[in-house]
């Protein structure tokens, strides 16, 4: 698995006008290809009278799924430059739809390529990007008398506390970089006088 990947910080829309044509870029994070496709469908429904609704998306931390569509623009002048902008910025798990309302002035192939790729780049700049880091899911089980202080200590040392559940014992779910697992075992034993149990789970990605 990739150690980390970059994606868009939030969903949003950026609009620009080029030679009287409106170019509206809608960007969103997408966890799966189905999510990306659903987003494309939703944007097309929002702009049923648009001249074109072109899209590009990159799914997978290793960019294993890449798709693009020119939606009627001359081949290679819309979806491909959009996709190239996403991959050049090393974006992952992201979908972009550029809606064009034709303004009566032809841009030519070069102008279209610059327009479609450019509006995606501008949208990324406006909405911002974040790094998501691979980590190991881990569960700590500890007695009630130590749980409050342990949770505070975890947060104070910058650990990613994902969930706390209270039952007969207290279960605290955290995320750990793989490289920190062994060192954390020692820290946990010291912090709880050896009374906490640590169980490792699967892997996931979280904000770096």
Topology (elements, then pairings):
Blueprint: E1 4-8, E2 12-18, E3 21-29, H1 33-46, E4 52-59, E5 65-69, H2 79-88, E6 94-101, H3 108-127, E7 129-142, H4 144-156, E8 160-166, E9 170-176, H5 181-191, E10 197-207
Helix pairs in contact: 2-3
Describe this structure in words.
The chain is α+β, with helices and mostly antiparallel strands and 208 residues long. It is 33% helix and 39% strand. It has 5 helices and 10 strands; from the N terminus they run E-E-E-H-E-E-H-E-H-E-H-E-E-H-E. The strands form 2 sheets. Strands 1, 7, 8, 9 and 10 form a 5-stranded antiparallel β-sheet that branches. A 5-stranded antiparallel β-sheet has the order 2-3-6-4-5, sandwiched between helices. A hairpin with a 2-residue loop joins strand 2 and strand 3. Helix 2 packs across helix 3 (108-127). The radius of gyration is 23 Å and the shape is elongated.
């Amino acid at each position: 698995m990739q150690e980390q990947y970059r994606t868009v910080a939030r969903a949003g829309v950026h609009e620009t006008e080029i030679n009287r044509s409106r170019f509206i870029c809608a960007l969103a994070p997408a966890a799966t290809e189905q999510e990306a496709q659903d987003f494309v469908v939703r944007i097309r429904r929002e702009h049923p009278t648009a001249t074109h609704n072109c899209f590009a998306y990159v799914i997978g931390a290793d960019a294993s799924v890449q798709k693009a569509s020119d939606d009627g623009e001359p081949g290679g002048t819309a979806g491909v430059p959009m996709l190239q902008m996403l991959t050049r910025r090393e974006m992952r798990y992201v979908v972009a739809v550029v809606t064009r309302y034709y303004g009566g002035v032809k841009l030519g192939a070069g102008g279209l390529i610059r327009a479609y790729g450019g509006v995606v780049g501008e949208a990324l700049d406006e909405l911002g990007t974040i790094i998501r880091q691979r980590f190991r899911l881990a569960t700590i089980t500890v007695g009630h008398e130590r749980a409050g202080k342990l949770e505070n200590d975890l947060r104070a040392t910058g650990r990613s506390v994902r969930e706390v559940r209270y039952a007969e014992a207290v279960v605290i779910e955290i995320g750990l970089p793989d490289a920190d697992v062994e060192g954390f075992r020692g820290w946990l034993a010291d912090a709880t006088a050896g009374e906490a149990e640590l169980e490792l789970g699967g892997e996931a990605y979280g904000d770096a």
